[in-house]
Every structure is written in C-alpha cells, then in structure tokens.
Amino acid sequence: MTTDVDIPVHAKDTTEEETAGAGRSERLSALAQQHGALVTLLVAMAVASLSFDTFLTGDNLENMALSSAFLAVVALGMTYVIITGGIDLSVGSLFALGGVLAAWASPYGFVAALLLPLFVCGLIGFVNGLLIARSRLAPFIVTLASMLGARGILLSITDEGSTTYLVGKGSFFAKLGQGSLLGVGVPVWITVVLFVLGAVVLRRTRFGQYVYAVGGNEDAAALMGAPVARTKISVYTLSGLCAGLAGALNAAWLASGVTILGSGMELDAISAVVIGGTLLTGGFGFISGSLVGVLLLKVIQNVINQIGSLDSAYQQVVSGAFLAVVVIAQTWLGRRRRVL
Q1: Hey, how many other C-beta atoms are within 10 angstroms of the C-beta on 109?
Q2: Burial of 156 by CB count in 10 Å (0-12 exposed, 13-18 middle, 19+ buried)?
Q3: Where are the alpha helices (H) located in 205-227, listed in sequence order?
Q4: Which of 139, 121, 332, 147 is nearest to 242 (CA)?
Q5: With contact defined as beta carbons under 8 Å apart, do 118 and 244 qualify?
Q6: Quick one: pLDDT at residue 335?
Q7: How many CB atoms are closer than 10 A to CB 94?
Q8: CA dist 166 to 121, 127, 177, 200, 296, Å?
Q9: Distance between CA atoms of 32 and 305, rounded to whole angstroms?
Q10: Rounded to an integer, what distance in angstroms lies between the CA atom of residue 159 and that of residue 136?
C-alpha cells in the first residue's frame, strides 16, 4: 500500500522561485563573462567621444582599426591555445621573425614573402605543440624557450639587428599591407575574415569541440575519445601561423622588417584574450571576445595619446590594472556559477 504525501503549496512555490532565481543568476553571470568586455568597450568609446573631439573622426578610427589588426591576428591563435588550458609566450618573437622573413623574401615575389614566414613560424609552433603534447612539458617553459630561440634566429638573420630588409613600395606584397578596400585597410579585412572563420571552426566543428573538451578536462576528453595530443599540436601550430601572418602583414604595412617589434606582444595578446572573457584555466572562451579585448586595449592607448600629457607607461599601468580587475571578476563569476 502506498501513501501519498501532500507537499504544502507554499513550499512548492518557494522551491520553484529559488530554482528560477538560481537560473536567472547563472544566466546573468554567463552574460557578464561573455559580454562584459563589449559593454566596457562601448562605455569607454562613449566617454572618449564626449571628452575628445578627434576620437570619432574617420582618420582616428581607421588608425585604431589598422593598428589593432596585427595584434588581433596574434590574439586569434592565442585564444585557441588558452581555451585548451595552455599558454604561448613565443608569439611576440614569432611576430618579429615573421616580419623580417617576409621583408627578406619580398624581392622573390608575393608568394615567397607570404609563405616563408608562415612555414617557419608554423613549424616553430608545431614543435612547441609536439613537445607539450608528446613529451608533456610545461607550456610556459617550452614557449619561453622558443621565444628566445626565435629571437636568436631573428638576430642572426639581421646581423644582430644592424640590417633592415625593405619591401618594395610598388610590389603587390606591399599593397597587401598598405592597400585599402572601401576605405578600410586590407589588413583589417583580412582580420575580419580570419575571425569569422576562427569563430565558425571553434563553435561549429568537431575540432572546436575537442579544443573546449581538452581545456575543460583533459583526462575526461581522452576517455571520450578526443585526440588530446593532436588537438594541442594543432592549436600551437595555429598560434605560430597567426603570429607569422601578423608579422608579414605588419612588414607589408611598414614596408620593412623591423627587428625591435614584438617585444611584449605576447603579454598584450594574453591580456586581450583574458579581457575578452576567455578563462586562463581553459575550457571557456570566445573568439569575438578576444577581438573586443584587442579593441579595448587600443581605445585605452588612444585615449592616453589623446590626453597628450601622459606617456606610454601609463598605458601599461591602466592595462595591467584593468586585466587584474577582469581576472578577479572572472574568478568570482566562475565560483558563483558553480555554487548556483
């Protein structure tokens, strides 16, 4: 014989209200992690436009977009790496190396100027991934070593930095960096296309699912049949390719391979990715958020330049403080979502 137990109506209502409230709080926390950087960017642009008459001018916006393109391409590859729970400290040196290799190869034609940096930087990224995935070495140590190695290759090619290779101004390769389409620089269009493709791959393909799975729980991903080692090798190779491409585009824009570029760029890329909502612990992140993070850093830099009385050191202070706030907020939101 069974006995029906009546639950008071008010108890049912309380339980339903608590469940609904927890669901709303979780959704709000997720939205804050995903779109918080975008809201901050819009607020910063609104304040800057009200404070400086030259901020929203066409020339200023074009300059910000163009200067953001190169960092954004590097941040694209970094996003994949960080989502897997890794880190890549070599991208700054690979960016500089890619620019020098592109300028060196530019007299041999457009294809050579573009493919050489992609091959060399992609190969270094592949070696990074191979050592990390197969030898189970720490990403920090491996990519730190490749950062120093790539910088050493760069110095040997340029005779300790005394030789600067130039890109012919009338060449097709130079037009890749200096040309424009519909009033917007070609590097900006290339960046937009790459980010659209990167978002589609990350969100709509099996490889993207593997990237999230490896970052979420590597052991569980392996038990589910995900190719953990191959995924890691792929993301580090992609990071190297993106850094090399960004360096080549920058060389075409400057019409030379500048050896001193790329110093600290890895930190800017990591900052942009984290500010955009990607967790440093892996398993959670957005391609679009990384682009927003890059733009936010450039807006901060532009505002400091607009003020005029502040030097570039203040940009580092503001960016570092902002990054610390974002990491603290991400940690708090992540804990709140787990509790809910």
Answers
A1: 13
A2: exposed
A3: 206-216, 218-223
A4: 121
A5: yes
A6: 60
A7: 38
A8: 20, 29, 13, 36, 32
A9: 29
A10: 35
